[in-house]
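Example 3.
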Amino acid sequence: MKHKSWYLTIGGILTACMLAFTAAGLFWTPYSPTAMSAPDRNAGPSAAHPFGCDQLGRDILSRTLEGAGSTLTIALAVLAVGFVFGLLIGALCGYYGGAADALVMRLCDAIAAFPSVLLALVVLAVIGPGKYNVIGALGVLFIPSFARLVRGEFLKYRDRDFVRSARLMGVSDLRIIFVHILPNTWPTLLSGLTIGFNNAVLGEASMSYLGIGVNPTEPSLGYMLKEAQGFLFTTPWYTAFPAAIVILLILGVGLIGEGVRERMGVAS
Amino acid sequence: MAEPIVRIDHLNSWYGRGKGRRQVLRDVSLKLAPGEVLGIVGESGSGKSTLAKCVLGMVTDIAGTLEVNSPRPQMVFQDPYGSLNPAKTVGWILEEPLRAAGVTDRAERRRRVGELLPLVGLEVGHLARRPAQLSGGQRQRVAIAAALIQGSKLILLDEPVSALDVTLQAQILRLLAELKEKLGLSYLFISHDLAVVYQLCDRVAVMTGGEIVEEGDVDTVYDHPRHPYTKKLLDASLALD
């Protein structure tokens, strides 16, 4: 195939820019994200405040930088929780099968039957908001989809001759699972990871937008959107910039996923 | 006569459980002497692959005597596309059986792989490649090398040349015959292809419906088949030639 898609390139560039933006926010912001300044209230974008200021005169660029940092950290943590446990459960279920597999998969079906954001909402309503609770609740709810994806891949490989031959040679089951089969599943898992990352970003933003995510003292992009919605018509920049960051981040990672799927010939 | 490397006496085997349990091997008896090549011929579903799995210890629902006097017998599979891990290099694939056997010294593993390569007609340059970058014949050579590298003396060949074209078939069969002489191997050669069996095997056992219906020297069986099923198989294969 001669045709080389631009998905990976564009997605990579976009994601790199967004990551650089976010990483910068972890170390440096032009102003303190919480410093208020009366004369700058509702100020539009200018040289001093490229993203403008909110109704309290806080610099929106600084807040967006910090918010992107916490959104990204939370999304990555959610992804890590969901992926690690999903991988373990999916790999063991797919490889061994049997009654335990059937039981675990029905449990996953039960969880997956509810919209994950809604379920996380209920969980957070019970255990209370906060960064770690968001990570825990969303992370656990992400496990079934990863488990299912990984399990499907392992089912595909467990009866291949190269796995049988490894068993004959006396290779241990754990080594077969993680060293022999797992590397073959990366293309599929990678594209699953990009989808999961986007869902995690959106999940965190939704939680915070609904006011049950991170605490107000640590701004996230979702929380900023919640604050900004009352001023959509007076200070549209307050909504526009955090929203743009969320969209560009998701777009970039989504394109990478699409590119990976295309290049590896994985059906989406 | 020397102690047989495989001795099977009145072996029965079943698949499935409960009501779905059905017998796949019926009263199978055979012997394989060291250095011998025994062909097992039959159509698909005749039980020949199950017999191989029994020898490898992969079937647990069995009754009868099954003695395998060779540590860790190995198998060469029909399809070299499926039997080599697509995510790994040839070097890794050949070293892995040694790792599994507890050879922790990397240099030692490399040395043993290096020794085996010329025997199977591969070169050092092939080690860094992945299976997808090899031809079908090269892949089957890698699969054979992987089966041999642990030092197993008993090798089960499950249609090892059926996926290859005729020229390659001849090459691989010649290679298998050479390796047998050099390394003192015994083969259990499973095939539906009578012509291929004739080229490599000393004796042949004909299977149908889970039973061995005829067994003997290749020449005797091919020239004077006694069982009607053997005659049918021979006629069918002659009709194709």
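The domain at 3-28+52-267 of chain A is CATH 1.10.3720.10 (MetI-like fold). Residues 60-96 of chain A form the longest helix (37 residues).
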